[in-house]
Amino acid sequence: MKAIDLFSGIGGLSEGFRKNNVDIVVANEIDKDIASSYKKNNPETEMINEDITQLNIESVFGKYKDANIILGGPPCQGFSQKGKRLSLKDPRNYLFRYFAKVVDFVKPEYFVMENVPNLLTTSNGYFKNEIIDIFSRMGYKVNLDVLNAADYGVPQNRRRAIIIGALNGHKVLMPKKINKKVTTWEAMSDLAFLKSGEGSFEQEYRIAPQTSYQKDRRKNSTKLFNHQATNHSLSAIKRMQLIPENGDKNDLPQELLTKSIYSGTWGRIIKNYQSVTITTRFDTPSSGRFTHPFLNRAITVREAARIQSFDDDTIFWGPKTSQMKQVGNAVPPKLAYKIAQQIIKDKKR
After folding, report:
1. 99: which strand partners?
2. What is the CA 138 to chain-centroid distance, rounded?
3. What is the reported pLDDT for 82?
4. Scanning 136, 221, 256, 319, which has the fewest C-beta atoms within 10 Å of its C-beta?
5. Confidence bin at 96 (pLDDT 50/70/90)
6. Which of 26, 52, 76, 134 is catalytic?
């Protein structure tokens, strides 16, 4: 099977589908640094580093009309504005419109769209109903739900709306939850115990893999990349030194509290549980529960990637801010893998 990945980012969806022997023939990503990082990791895939709104859909995607699947997570600001009845035809939701336009032109057997959970609940289901209507008019049977990545082997509580469309006349079922959940410590305990400011872009593994999850992430990698600790200020380190395992800002004295509005501010990752949702600011302790379980630093790009379920042979290139965007905005590959399995299963029906 062949797939097109729109709004690809670093390629979390691509990786999950590729592991199910789906050939990602072309990807589209507007961000130059992220597109470059995707291409370095996936040299066999054509990368179109352009604004999709400026593309001629017919001429660009005409040679990919044999694609079986279209993947993507178009940013849709309107979907997160509670109480607003913004039509999908509203210019503020134009990126979704272009995703739908490519689907309508290519007419793949399947499409998978990922988005924020509010997509399905805002305005009493207004958007949900409109999505079903738009794709139904194209001939697709749509199944949509909110899935938590933690239910599919990802050591992270990350809830995302998943929409699957099929042209074959029946709904593709969502993947079944797995029984065993993976903890953050099972995901990252083999990564070097760096202090603030330590580490390098490329280094040797210092510790042998200790869990099956770690072995799976390392099986195609002989070197460790992206494991560099943020060089925190002395005041930030002082705060972290006062926070015990599982603790957060509530363990700080009043005079050391910051004005951060984020939930879990200065919180340590809980070793024996799943992480909170990884965002694009996980290198900043004041932005959430992103402090190492016991070291006085925020998690590294590689530790965040492990929590997102990326294999270690996915390397995040570019400036540190871009690397964090690549990890924080991605669909967890293990979740994508489970969704891909459902489509492959449906294809064989």
Report:
1. none
2. 28
3. 39
4. 319
5. confident
6. 76
* d(C-alpha 187, C-alpha 205), whole Å: 15
Going from N- to C-terminal start, the domains of the chain cover 2-176+332-347, 184-328
Question: Is 3.40.50.150 the CATH number for 2-176+332-347?
Answer: yes
> What digits encode the pLDDT tens for the residues 177-232?
998 999 999 999 999 999 999 999 999 999 999 999 999 999 999 999 999 999 99
C-alpha span between 174 and 45 (Å, rounded): 27
Is the pLDDT reported for residue 254 higher than 90? no
Q: Find out whether 258 and 265 touch, Cβ atoms under 8 Å.
A: yes
Read off the amino acid at residue 255: E
What is the pTM for the complete model shown?
A: 0.93
Q: Give yes or no: 107 in active site.
A: no
Topology of domain 184-328, per CATH? DNA Methylase; Chain A, domain 2 (3.90.120)
d(CA 64, CA 3): 9
Cβ atoms of 12 and 330 closer than 8 Å: yes
Place of tokens 């640094």: 33
Please, which residues have CB within 8 angstroms of residue 177's CB and are 6 or more apart in sequence? 151, 152
